[in-house]
Amino acid sequence: MAESVFRARLAEDGLDGLIEVDSAGTGGWHEGDDADPRTVAVLRSAGYRSAHTARQFHPSWFDRLDLVIALDSGHLRALHRLAPNPQAAAKVRMLRSYAASGTDAADTTADDLDVPDPYYGGFEGFEECLDMIEEACDGLLTAVRTAVTARCLIPARTSAHDGRHTTRPPHSPQERESA
Questions:
Q1: Does residue 177 surpass a pLDDT of 80?
Q2: Distance set, CA 172 to CA 2, 10, 81, 92, 147 (Å)
Q3: pLDDT grade, residue 136 (50/70/90)?
Q4: DSSP string spanning 5-32?
Q5: How many CA atoms lie within 13 A of 42 on its CB side?
Q6: pLDDT 10s digits, 55-68
Q7: CA atoms of 69 and 152, how far apart (whole Å)
Q8: Which of 9, 20, 45, 164 fits 176 for a cystine, CB–CB 3.0-4.6 Å?
Q9: Distance between CA atoms of 7 and 12, rounded to whole angstroms?
Q10: At 92, which helix (H) or strand (E)?
Q11: CA-based angle 42:97:52, to the nearest 5?
Q12: DSSP 8-state secondary structure symbol assigned to residue 51
């Protein structure tokens, strides 16, 4: 879900050619599966595209990524365990730490920043997750745009999105990131 939202935000901001967005799980239990049909339905009803096949994150990816986004504290811990060194672990951030309405990340625990897993609930849980992800992706886009502008010396642009679509983290054309 976060990948689709952030990819849309990047495209709206004109950064999609500079930033690579990808998604992977910390475990392999759904590897090869399509996204949950409820995720796809919620994304489509909000105007997002969704074409996702689950795969597992590999520690070797840290070398080519500038930023790795975790959606919950369990993912955060798993990604920190997978990190081959402290520099790689420092690339991992919680998505909701970028949300404007969230409290200061320094004053919260990782659990306070979780995007809950809606899998065992109803459709409304997926809609609630989308709202959280959209808000956080707005802040993530701002951070990425700032980083890209500083790195590439491109003019800063004001996002013209409607608040329903999001985009991914920053990097130069040779750099890659994962959300």
A1: no
A2: 21, 14, 27, 18, 9
A3: very high
A4: HHHHHHHHHT-TTT------BSSSTTTT
A5: 23
A6: 999 999 999 999 99
A7: 22
A8: 20
A9: 9
A10: strand 92-94
A11: 35
A12: -
Query: Which residue in this structure is represented by tokens 């730490």?
Result: 97
Distances (CA, A) of 91 to 37, 82, 100, 130, 138: 31, 12, 20, 24, 19
Higher pLDDT, 179 or 110: 110
For 69-90, what is each residue's pLDDT tens digit? Answer: 999 999 999 999 999 999 999 9
pTM over 0.85: no
- Asked whether 24 and 64 are in contact (CB, 8 A), the reply is no
Residue 28 CB partners (closer than 8 Å, separation 6+): 56
Tokens linked to 122: 């109803």
Q: Which of 174, 112, 161, 152 is nearest to 6 (CA)?
A: 161
When pLDDT is averaged across residues 95-106 and rounded to a whole number, the result is 73
What residues does 65 pair with on adjacent strands?
A: 176
Q: What angle do CA 166, 172, 177 make, to 5 degrees?
A: 55
Of how many residues is the chain composed? 179
